[in-house]
Fold these 2 entries.
Entry 1:
Amino acid sequence: MTRGPGTRRTAYFLLACMVFLAGCGEGGSDRDKWWAHNPIDKTVSYPIDKKLRQLDWGTVAFNEPPSMNYGETRTIQLLLSARKSAAELEGELRAVGEPQSVSIQIAPVMEAKLSASGGAFTITPITPEEQGVSAMSNTEWKWSVRANELGQHKLNLSLIAKLTVDKANVARSVKTFDHDIYVSIATPASAFNYAADHWAITTGIGSAVIAVVTWLLRRRRPGIDTST
């Protein structure tokens, strides 16, 4: 049986592919060779994994102000307890706003952060952001928040567990809570504060209005030349 040119070309092509693949298998990268001889053992537990599994559970409660006046300053309060229920902790909030609570993992040292993008709010910490957590009493964080822009804006409240791995003193931060607070800044009571903060714009608009009113009054008076 004779083989045509097409059959020979196919055979040559398959042979070349086999040689190429064999070469790849023998060569390969050093990384591939390492993983081939060191497969991942999923039963291995690193010190940080042990720390994460050992984190206790606690409760946090905080206030959500649904609205603020422009220029108004409010306090955001966050309470953390390793023993109290959500209802108990919410009842101890003193800052104005809707009480909220949730269960989270906690560590002996926690860092709480309140942040916002842009310049919608001026946020000033009242208490240290990083604190040691008590197993017996509440741990409290507070921030002073001033509303700077009209409209609806977002605050972000988060808690971070600060871990140290064994005696190596290797730090690791783990975010255990992340929550957005939406605040509407638009009320009639804020008009005066807004005008005071934007006095240049307000003065310009006021001057323009006075000039237009004066021009209209002059036009209505007989005998007054308004062509100038």
Entry 2:
Amino acid sequence: MIHFTTSNTKDDLSGILSLQKANLPEVLSKDEIISQGFVTVMHNYDELNNLNEIENHIVAKDGNNVIAYLLAMTKQSKYKIHILIPMFEIFDSIFFEGKLISLYNYIVVGQVCIAKQYRAQGIIDNCYAFYKDHFKSKYDFAITEIASTNLRSVNAHKRVGFKEIHSYVSNNTEWSIVLWDWKTNS
């Protein structure tokens, strides 16, 4: 039975790390990257745990096994992982509804991943429903960036309710910044 919860144990964090490792571009074929998507950052245990101490990540579990996750990052997370600082700086320099993003209280979806054998079963939608229910009383919206070449992720985020508010190019990669406004989306 699949259930959705917050990451509360070392095993939960280890499960997240295992899924990350299995879904990095360097371990996937070109066909898998195109059809199944990928993750771009590999965290270490301490980084993941430091983020989890600020806000718990969301996990889907089949029994005790982590089969999907959505990472949670806040403004406090900005300096916890060096490679992500530019993402936060871009967020803080763009506008949403006439106001700088930095003036809102937002949560960042740090990364999303579903185990291969559990894809196309609605798990991402259920993970995001849990994410929203868990965080909507504390944050105005969820925001993230997606490599534009990661079409599976782009389409999944659109389906959930994210809308592109900005795009930019960095290191020959086009990034789409998407936002899920919890005040207007039911």
